Amino acid sequence: MSSAKRKMIEDRALRDAAFALVKADVAHLRNDLTARGIGQRFVDRISGGASDVLDEAVDVAESHRGVVLTLVAAIMLWLTRNPLLALFGDDEDDEDDEDPETAEPEGD
């Protein structure tokens, strides 16, 4: 048998073995996907990442309590800014504060 023919037989055997491995991988993937779908895998991965982020945030918040309390207070003030401004603000509009004699005429 010539060396070229022997090389072709060896290459064909390697090709067939690789193709058998690919077929086995595809079959394994199909079985795995039927057991747990792509959507469930996506949800699992996202929830795993979210729990890691939450754990890290809790660790940082425990070590920086003052900063967290200041941030919460600032958010509360921001959310209640309109009632607080109305409580401490003037009852008159800003336009009424101008003196009619010193105000510039409009439309000229």
Note the topology.
Elements lengths: L2 H33 L2 H26 L1 H15 L1 H8 L20
How would you characterize this protein structure?
This protein is mainly alpha-helical and about 110 residues long. It has a domain at about 1-35. The protein has four helices and no strands.
How many distinct helices?
A: 4
So what's the overall shape?
Answer: elongated
Mean pLDDT, as a whole number? 85
List the uncertain runs.
none
| Rg measurement, Å | 36 Å
The N- to C-terminal Cα distance equals 109 Å
- Going by helix content, strand content and strand pairing, the class is mainly alpha
The total strand number stands at 0
Strand content: under 5%
* Main sheet attributes: strand count, strand direction, barrel closure: none
Please bin the fraction of helical residues: over 70%
Give the topology string: H per helix, E per strand: HHHH
Question: Which descriptors apply to this entry?
Answer:
108 residues; mainly alpha; 4 helices
Short description:
With 108 residues, this protein is mostly helical. Helix content is 76%, strand content 0%.
